[in-house]
């Protein structure tokens, strides 16, 4: 999982993955550097779904999506001495509000789209190295929360 947000969320984490705001790969590819010669300028723009601009994803840079039995949480990540550490909770949504979750793969980065029953969506980029953890998040969100979990109110709205 990389990080464990159980203590921060007050509930056992069942899946989690490090994510970035949509457009992060594009910005990296557009930054002049040694990768320009290998990848070509702007290649990452083709990886990201342009619909990401219309998603209602909370604003963040680098974050961690954590799934518990009752909720989905987007948590900010901050720099530690050598690694990224969990920061504050950016958004929390009841699992009962999640309609679907899908990972669309790319060569270097994928796009995770979470759709809510309200019709709102969150879209985040996931590095290929994190696709295995992302598939676990998708599976956890696709499973129905237990009946006792369905009564837990959402602590914030989905975008």
Short account of what is shown:
With 159 residues, the chain is of the alpha+beta class. It is built from four helices and seven strands.
The separation of the N and C termini measures: 25 Å
Report strand order across the widest sheet. 4-3-2-1-7-6-5
Secondary-structure element sequence? HEHHEEEEEEH
**The CATH homology group name:** Pleckstrin-homology domain (PH domain)/Phosphotyrosine-binding domain (PTB)
* Top CATH class: Mainly Beta
Shape category: globular
DSSP helix count? 4
Could you tell me the CATH topology label: PH-domain like
Mean pLDDT figure: 79
Strand content: 35-45%
- Name given to the CATH architecture: Roll
Low-confidence stretches: 28-53, 149-157
Domain unit count: 1
Give the assembly state of these chains. Answer: single chain
Rounded radius of gyration (Å): 16 Å
User: How many DSSP-defined strands?
Assistant: 7
Largest beta-sheet characterization: 7 strands, antiparallel
3D structure, described in words:
There is one protein chain. The protein has one domain (6-144): PH-domain like (Roll). With 159 residues, it is α+β, with helices and mostly antiparallel strands. The protein has a seven-stranded antiparallel beta sheet. The radius of gyration is 16 Å and the shape is globular. It has helices spanning 6-9, 24-30, 35-39, 131-142, and strands spanning 13-21, 62-68, 71-79, 84-94, 98-104, 109-116, 121-127. It is built from four helices and seven strands. The two termini are 25 Å apart.
């Amino acid at each position: 999982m990389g990080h464990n947000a159980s203590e921060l969320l007050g509930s056992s984490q069942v899946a989690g993955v490090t994510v970035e705001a949509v457009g992060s790969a594009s910005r990296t590819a557009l930054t002049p550097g040694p990768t320009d010669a290998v990848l070509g300028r702007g290649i990452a723009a083709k990886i990201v779904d342009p619909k990401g601009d219309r998603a209602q994803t909370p604003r963040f840079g680098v974050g961690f999506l954590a799934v518990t039995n009752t909720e989905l949480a987007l948590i900010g990540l901050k720099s530690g001495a050598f690694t990224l550490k969990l920061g504050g909770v950016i958004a929390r949504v009841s699992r009962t509000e999640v309609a679907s979750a899908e990972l669309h793969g790319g060569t270097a980065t994928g796009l995770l789209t979470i759709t809510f029953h309200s019709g709102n969506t969150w879209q985040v980029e996931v590095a290929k190295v994190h696709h295995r953890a992302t598939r676990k998040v998708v599976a956890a969100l696709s499973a129905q929360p237990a009946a006792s979990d369905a009564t837990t109110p959402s602590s914030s709205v989905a975008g």
